[in-house]
Write a structure and sequence with these properties.
3 helices; elongated; mainly alpha
């Protein structure tokens, strides 16, 4: 990514943000900051060493299943009548 940073930033600015490189006041500063962060990610084998803790979410869909059935008034064949 570091080798292609100019192409990547050009794509992000033009396609995703609808801007031109000329519209960015400190393009070189932005580019150097991104390169610095990418270099840290590449060089540090343990990302937790520089406070980059990921957020992990776990959704228990099985616990939501009865609520989905009740909310949508579904009658699945899994409901057993006595």
């Amino acid at each position: 990514m570091i080798e292609n940073i100019d192409k990547l930033l050009d794509f992000v600015l033009r396609i995703e943000m609808f801007k031109k490189i000329e519209d960015i006041a400190d393009y070189e500063g932005l580019k150097s900051a991104i390169i610095e962060k990418l270099t840290i990610l590449r060089d540090v084998p343990n990302p937790q060493a520089h406070d980059a803790f990921p957020l992990i979410y776990h959704l228990d869909v099985a616990a939501m299943y009865p609520n989905i059935i009740l909310t949508n008034r579904l009658q699945p064949v899994a409901i057993v009548n006595e």
